[in-house]
Amino acid sequence: NVEVTEPFWFRDEFGEDSLGRYVMSSGFTRDTANSCLKNTTNNQTVWLNLANTRLEEIVASFKFPGVHCPGGIKFHGDASASHNQSFVGNHQKGYLLRWGGVNCALDVLKYDNLSTGTPTSLKSFGNVDTTIDPMAIYQIKISHDGNGTYTISVSKNGGEYVVKGSFTDTTWTSGHTGIASDTTTSFEVHDLQISGTRVYQKPIHRGA
User: Fold this and answer.
1) Of the candidates 200, 154, 206, 194, which has an alpha carbon nearest to the alpha carbon of residue 74?
2) The pTM is what?
3) 152: Cβ–Cβ under 8 A, 6 or more apart, which residues?
4) CB-based contacts of 137: which residues, under 8 Å, 6+ apart?
5) Average per-residue pLDDT in the chain?
6) pLDDT surpasses 60 at 31
7) CB atoms < 10 A from the CB of 127, how many?
8) Is the terminal CB of the chain with fewer CB neighbours within 10 Å at N or C?
């Protein structure tokens, strides 16, 4: 086999029932009235049912309630690892851009396939907003330069992006993307866009 990469782009605006695109337990549901994905329980992750991807960019749009509602975006993760559908679990792999607190303080964690399930904190980025507006749509963007440096930016209601900071780590170079919840207080996912390259093994066919 030979490793093959090809350009990849995905978008879900949740205007229709798209839950079949995801590998999930009972921790998330589609809110038909508001055309969004909502978390319903804590310690859950919903993974996109997509091939292994080397990310260039993730843009996810959220409504936050203005109270503590810990959650996050998992990326370059392993959706087949044990406890993969937990927020934190044994032998998870990949990264988690996590938010928590009333104004959604951001930090990024790395899962190192540890039996304890304890992640490594890589960097903190400050709050999503000085004061969270429960009526606003916040766009959180994760940009990857292809060499292990990730930049985190935030926009409010489609406005200009504000760069929150960057981190560099090359432990996980490709994987899967998911939305994670560690709360029974609902936040809403209104749009999810992912671009990058799909990575897969292609059999080599040799002539006689």
Assistant:
1) 194
2) 0.91
3) 97, 106, 108, 125, 140, 141, 142, 163, 164, 165, 166
4) 61, 62, 63, 156, 157, 158, 190
5) 91
6) yes
7) 16
8) C
Question: Is 181:39 a contact under the CB 8 Å cutoff?
Answer: yes
Tokens 């203005």 belong to 66
Q: How many CB atoms lie within 10 A of CB 24?
A: 20
Distance CA 208, CA 203 (A): 16
Residue 107 token pair: 């930090």
**Token code pair at residue 88:** 């934190």
Q: Tokens at residue 53, please?
A: 């991807």
Q: Report the C-alpha gap between 203 and 2 in whole angstroms.
A: 6
Kindly give the pairing relationship between strand 53-63 and strand 138-144. antiparallel
Query: Which amino acid does the sequence have at 129?
Result: D
Count CB atoms within 10 A of the CB of residue 101: 14
